[in-house]
Amino acid sequence: MGTHCLAVVMMTWLFIVSALTNTVHAEQQNSVIDSAIDWEWNKSIVNAQKCAEMTSKLPRLTCFDQLFPANQPTLNLALEVAKQLTKRQLAWAVDYPKRWLQLMAWQKKQTNPHLSEFTLTSAGFSEPLITSENNNYWLFATALGQVSRLKDTGRPMLLLSCIDNISRVELLLPEAVDQPRFSVNLTNEKGHFPQQWMSDETGYVVRSGRGLPAVSAMKFMLKSDRFSLRSDNQLIDGLLFETQQLTKAIKPLRDTCSW
After folding, report:
1. 65 lies in which domain range?
2. Which residues belong to the signal peptide in this entry (predicted)?
3. Which helix (H) or strand (E) segment is 164 a member of?
4. What would the pLDDT profile of 5-20 be if each residue is shown by its tens digit?
């Protein structure tokens, strides 16, 4: 599949999603979200989402090439994407990310829903949190602190990971943020560490920069037994995380991402 063909398809896709998002009324969002979770995805769209999530360029291009053969007309392909998006009745525009669904489902199964200790998982476990290739690691912990203002749909969860040798720090929220970028200060008794974080297209996942910015944030987390997030975004401001066990738990992640 040529680069031009792929670009046209993705631009059409993003345009439709943007248009749908702008037409969703606030009173409709809850019902749309509920139905979106249980919606049966069309196979081609599901696979396209998996391709888009790949971080390595060559595997991502190969994935799209296999999914959308070069002999398939670009216009027909774009129209089919539009058809499927419309058929799902705006579900794409407000759907939850896969990581959000997995972690919140895990959280609800815990006997202690306020578990704050960082938990390690990897592709080598019998039931990995997120399916991936070997040598990818995730650490996750539930937020403490000022969360009473949030809806009763779960507590924010911090996800530290090394995926494809790239370090990541992500915060999964029970409510979507409406800011694409905002200031975040990691704070402990020894000081603070300012960063600019960004949200994904859904607003339910916010993150630091990948690579060195994520490594710097994780190194700051290791300096004390707990840290909090201070931010100009009210959904994030005041969240607290315990890190007493983090030094030991994070070692496989550090070894894999070499820092």
Report:
1. 3-94
2. 1-26
3. none
4. 555 555 555 555 555 5
